[in-house]
Each structure stands twice: as C-alpha cells, then as structure tokens.
Design goal:
Helix content is about 40%, strand content about 20%. By secondary structure, the chain is α/β, with parallel strands linked by helices. Strand 10 and strand 11 form a beta hairpin. The longest helix is centred in the last third of the chain and has 22 residues. It is globular and about 65 Å long.
Length: about 350
C-alpha cells in the first residue's frame, strides 16, 4: 500500500521524479544521468507504474547502489498518477520530472538550482528546448512540456489543486503547466544545459502523429478542464489572454499541423470556437497584438469554410521510416476545396 506523506519536512535539495513504464532498454542511461549529476543533494523518486518488463529489477539494482533512490512499485495507473504520487512523496525544495527513456547533461540540475537561487525563481524553464521563453511573458502564458520545468515545491504545497489530470493523454503536461503558471510569481530561463528527448514508438506524442483522431476527444477534455479551472478560480477577467494563448499554441497548432479528416477537423473547429467565443468576451483590442495572423483569422471566422476562405491551406505531413529513422515531409494542402 502506498502511503503519501504530503511534503513532510521540506529539505534543501532537489526531488527528481521518474515515472517508469516498460523502458528496460533506456532506463539505465536515464538513471546514470541522474545519479552522476554534479549537484549531489538529490532524492530520486522512481515510480514503477506496473511495468511488465525488467524495469523494476533495474530500479532495484540501482537502489542498492545509491541510497538516494526511492523505488515505488504500483499497479499501472498512468503517467499522471505516477507523477502526482511523486509530488506527494517529495521532500525537496525543488522538483524536476524526467521521463524514464530520456537523459540530461551531467550539470543540468546544478545549472537549474543556481538559476533558481540567483533569480529567486518559483519556476525555471529550459529555454534551449523549443524556444520556450516565447511561451511565458509578463502579459500571458500558454503551456510547457513537463521536462522543461524546474519547480519550487512551495507552489504545489500551497496549491494542491495543481496536479496532473488523470486519464488525460496526450496533453496532460500542457494542462498542468498552464495551471502552475497561474501561481508563479517569478519565472527565469535557463539556456546553458540540455535535456535529451528520445522519440520512440508508443509515446503519446508520437501516436498522435500517426493517429491524430485521438486528439479529437483529448482536445474536448483539455477545454473542459481549463474552463472549469478558470471558473472556479475566477480567472476569466484577468487571465483570458493566457487561455487564448494556450489555445493558439496547443489546440490551434494541432489543428494546423495534424492530418485530421474533414469530420474530425470540423469537430475540433466547433469545440474550439465555442470556448473562444466565451474567452473573446474578456479580450481587448491590444490583446490581439499577441496573436499570429492565422489565429486571428480563426478567432474571427464564424465557420470553418469562412476560415479557409482566408487561409486556404493547412500543413500536412507525409511520414515515412527510412534507414531506422522517422522522416517527415511537410506540404501545403488546399483545404477550402472540402468546404465549397
């Protein structure tokens, strides 16, 4: 039975949380990159989420070699549940999540810890990763990937409504980060170290490329969760621009770049326009300066046909595997022809 002691005795160290599920091929490289960090004051919380391969055996071997490693073995409940368990068990002043098939530079945590201390930051964002400094500003924020965030534990301790949503994949990290950013007072950015992200079959992000239909239901859930969050915390008046930017950089980006069928594309357009119509009531003219031209077309269009009369095309991708590598070829497709 897993008993969660919520943030008992916060200690001046970093809690590294690693959800683990069937990654025997990559797990040692991940763990080696953590235990050999130049910053030594760590607790390494590994949540084995019901793996059916040798992952638990590898974790136990490492735990015997390094007493900073804590292994939790639980029934499979999904990555969000595993991360939430890790949050509740953490005792460090700061939190960092790493996926168990990835690895980081050996100075990674030292760089982030120093950045957080030097800038008195609630959150340090890895900005050598996908130019994420463009997703957070003084006026708005959108969403961040889990692996980019070095989090001061106090935020989660004081706001226990900020947790990963259960049974939401993909997109759970976007929801969590969007909520988290509502409560951060100081955000700084780190450019001088690297997270090594591994793309492989079976990941939700990769599955969404091959099966974009899974995003249709997921996007509806993202919208409903954040709408409820904004209502319960009375955020629409002050933070509607952030909600709109989340939609632009998460939902609209998917709408523009995934190979949806006409039916699925129409459903996403309808669901997104419904929440945007609500958000638009709280936006002012100056807010539109923060949006791309294409997103403004989307905001202003009453129908998907009207949108494509202005934009006309959508990016589509041909994805092939060549010499053990995944290759994507992007091309423009005229979508207006489907809505004549």
């Amino acid at each position: 039975m897993l008993i969660l002691l919520f943030f008992a005795n916060i200690i001046d160290m970093i809690s590294v949380i690693i959800p683990v599920y069937n990654v025997e091929k990559y797990l040692s490289e991940c763990l080696d990159s953590i235990i050999n960090q130049t910053f030594r004051d760590l607790e390494i919380i590994c949540i084995n989420d019901g793996s059916t391969d040798n992952s638990i055996s590898i974790l136990n071997i490492y735990a015997k070699k390094d007493n900073r490693i804590i292994v939790i073995d639980k029934k499979n409940s999904g990555v969000s549940s595993a991360r939430n368990d890790g949050i509740s068990l953490s005792r460090g002043e700061y939190l960092f999540f790493i996926d168990s098939d990835d690895y980081i530079d050996l100075d990674f945590l030292e760089k982030f810890y120093k950045n957080a201390k030097d800038n008195n930051s609630d959150l340090v964002v890895l900005s050598s990763f996908w130019s994420l400094d463009k997703r957070v500003s003084n006026n708005f924020h959108s969403a961040l990937p889990t692996c980019s965030m070095f989090i001061k534990t106090d935020i989660l301790r004081e706001n226990n409504n900020i947790r990963y949503p259960i049974n939401i994949q993909p997109g759970e990290d976007g929801i969590f980060s969007h909520m988290l950013l509502m409560y951060t007072k100081k955000v700084s950015f780190e450019y001088d170290t690297h997270y090594h992200y591994r793309k492989r079959l079976g990941q939700d992000s990769q599955r969404a490329l091959k099966e974009p239909k899974i995003l249709v239901d997921a996007i509806r859930k993202w919208i409903d969760i954040l709408d409820k969050f904004y209502i319960e915390n009375d955020l629409y008046i002050k933070k509607s621009l952030s909600f709109a930017k989340y939609i632009e950089q998460e939902i609209f980006l998917a709408f523009r770049t995934k190979n949806f069928t006409v039916d699925d594309e129409t459903i996403i357009f309808s669901n997104t326009k419904e929440i945007l119509n609500k958000i638009s009531n709280y936006l002012n003219k100056e807010d539109y300066n923060n949006f791309s031209k294409e997103f403004i077309f989307f905001l202003d269009a009453n129908t998907i046909k009207e949108y494509y009369q202005k934009v006309k095309y959508r990016y589509n991708y041909i994805r092939i595997r060549l010499l053990s590598k995944d290759i994507s070829i992007r091309y423009k497709e005229n979508r207006l022809k489907y809505y004549k």
